[in-house]
Design goal:
Elements (H helix, E strand, L loop, with lengths): L1 E6 L2 E6 L6 H11 L31 H23 L17 H12 L11 H11 L3 E5 L1 E3 L2 E2 L7 E4 L6 E5 L4 H16 L4 E3 L14 H14 L2 H6 L8 H11 L3 H10 L5 H33 L6 H9 L1 H12 L5 H8 L6 H8 L2
Parallel strand pairs: 3-7
Antiparallel strand pairs: 1-2, 4-5, 6-7, 6-8
């Protein structure tokens, strides 16, 4: 077996009579700050091209955490893309179906139709799960995490999401550091990237009237698609106009649609439901409400953290979300069917083989 190691001048391999154990490879991965799977690849990995950076000017430089998760997802995506290609699986019909020259409303409606989602009738109070399930049922892999390990976490100001628009295996990543409403907007924004075949990295995804001219045209387009998909014009107009006259009304409508108050305020302004004066007034109120919300959430997380001790968050659920449920199921099926070696399955999922049953149990929850 070859141990693949990345050096300053590229990748090199090391051969020996004894192969590294899973624990040794995990130690190497932490020491070199590289994805665990890298150390068990059967061959030198392909030279992944950097994803296009669609982030706004002045964004924080990508640090170790962001580079780590991008490489990890690229490796998972490359593996499943090769598998699907070799098995002559049908290409995703969504990748590149539209371009930036098309009407964002048409792209948004196509996403809703393809995924069979109606934002007027979510089945739960957590619509992001419905969107993820619908995307993965249609062959789009969705990874969501903010946690690499205890000392390496993702910063949402640095990276909110990215998309790999490969017709053999479209992959979307969402940074889960933020709360669910911004995550949902990021998810649909990244799906728009898939629909127009524009792979790349995003941050500051939610609509913002400030410095709008500094955003990349692709980002502005994908924001428009997400706004139209999550807050369709006819749906927004169906609410009583009094709902948009105070911050409480805005919050209630936003909660029903699964978006943030900020996103809804921008949408109602763009639809001429509220004036610029009203927007500025309500935005100040929303800022205060949001600060209160963050304070309550911090307290809630602290209580939950105390409650979770000593075990902490469920490791297998974290890995399941990080790998994507669809990817996890695909790898487990390949392993159970004898199509891939245990070591490869373990490295792809970052879970020891003897723990696969615990990981699999999370898939049914």
């Amino acid at each position: 077996m070859k141990l693949v190691i990345e050096g300053s001048s590229g990748y090199y391999t090391q051969r020996g009579e004894s192969q590294p154990t899973i624990r040794q490879a995990q130690t190497l991965a932490k020491a070199y700050k590289r994805p665990f799977a890298l150390f068990f690849l059967p061959d030198i990995p392909r030279d992944f091209q950097p994803l296009q950076d669609f982030r706004k000017p002045g964004a924080k430089p990508l640090t170790t955490s962001s580079i780590f998760i991008i490489r990890e997802i690229q490796q998972k995506q490359a593996w499943i893309s090769d598998v699907n290609s070799e098995n002559k699986e049908e290409k995703s019909p969504f990748v590149g179906r539209f371009s930036i020259k098309d009407d964002p409303k048409n792209v948004a409606q196509d996403i809703l139709d393809a995924l069979k989602i109606n934002p007027a009738f979510y089945k739960s109070e957590n619509p992001i799960k419905e969107w993820i399930n619908a995307a993965e049922k249609n062959g789009i892999f969705v990874s969501r995490t903010s946690f690499i390990h205890s000392r390496l976490k993702l910063d949402s100001e640095e990276l909110q999401g990215f998309a790999i628009a490969d017709p053999h295996a479209p992959f979307v990543f969402v940074n889960s550091e933020d709360w669910n409403a911004p995550q949902l907007f990021t998810l649909v924004h990244e799906l728009a990237h898939i629909w127009i075949a524009e792979s790349g990295i995003s941050n500051a995804v939610e609509p913002n009237l400030t410095y709008k001219d500094k955003f990349h045209p692709v980002e502005l387009f994908c924001n428009e698609v997400a706004a139209n998909a999550l807050m369709p014009e006819e749906l927004v107009f169906s609410f009583d106009s009094s709902s948009f006259q105070n911050s409480e009304g805005i919050f209630q409508v936003a909660k029903q649609l699964g978006v943030s108050s900020f996103a809804l305020l921008v949408r109602t302004l763009n639809l001429n439901i509220i004036s610029t004066f009203d927007y500025q007034k309500l935005k100040k109120q929303a800022d205060i409400s949001y600060a209160d919300y963050l304070s309550r959430e911090a307290e809630k997380k602290a209580r939950q953290k105390e409650k979770d001790k000593p075990g902490g968050p469920n490791y297998f659920m974290l890995q399941l979300n990080r790998n994507s449920r669809l990817f996890t199921q695909t790898v487990l099926d390949a392993f159970r069917g004898g199509f891939i070696e245990p070591t490869l399955a373990s490295s792809l999922l970052n879970v020891q083989v003897n723990k696969f049953q615990k990981l699999e149990s999370q898939l049914n929850r």
